[in-house]
Amino acid sequence: MTQKIKVAVSGAxxxxxxxxxNAVLQENDLELVSAIDVMNVGQQxxxxxxxxxxxxxxxxxxxxxIIDFTNPELVFKHTKLILEKGARxxxxxxxxxxxxxxxxKKLSQxxxxxxxxxxxxxxxxxxxxxxxxxxxxxxxNAEIIEFHHNxxxxxxxxxxxxxxxxxxxxxxxxxQDNCLEIETIQGxxxxxxxxxxxxxxxRLPGFVAHQEVIFGAPGQALTIRHDSFDRISFxxxxxxxxxxxxxxxxxxxxxxxxL
Length: 259
What we know:
Layout: E1 5-10, H1 15-25, E2 30-36, E3 44-45, E4 48-51, H2 54-60, E5 65-68, H3 75-84, E6 88-91, H4 98-111, E7 115-117, H5 123-135, E8 141-148, H6 158-170, E9 191-192, E10 198-203, E11 209-217, E12 220-228, H7 235-247, E13 251-253
Parallel strand pairs: 1-2, 1-5, 2-4, 5-6, 6-7, 7-13, 8-10
Antiparallel strand pairs: 3-4, 8-11, 9-10, 11-12
Helix pairs in contact: 1-7, 3-4, 5-6
């Protein structure tokens, strides 16, 4: 009998954490062995007791993979700790800087453990990013609008940042033919990447995770949009990521690299 992959969830009491726990419990080759959160410590979820300390969980239990959906202030510290203690991180928390990602890549390679960081685990969202990258070869004017719930702390979203990075791989500069712009209200044109892609972040109750990339050209426009209406949309990507890093000791940034 094949040994099950022992999985822990950090941020277990959040909406994403609960969705991940339910998804893990449905897979025959996965076993939930730990749930970590500062909320509801001592209570049961998914058949395990919620514990407060990630470090204690790593020291006291045999854990193969830890899935982290916490917050931008903790994610870098958590990922380093997971790798240093000999487990494999699957990171869905956004807010990591480019320098932090590079440092985690180096640590993953030094330790010889797989590490996967994904700004978005929805397969449709990953396809949206890939399609936007392809369109960037042919259309030179583009902007990104992302919509999330009003409890999301970081802006722009990791998905928007990753999308812009992929688009920039195909075109170094966008919208070079725009006129000189004057903002009468600061920030009206959104954030601007080094490649001159404007990113607009919307935060409203009722949304989950949504993004559209709009390309404009004389006489036409192309809109590539993805909508996640329920967190269940992220679960196939999470499960795929767990299995990938158990078989491969590589560092992966972006789910498109393992599809």
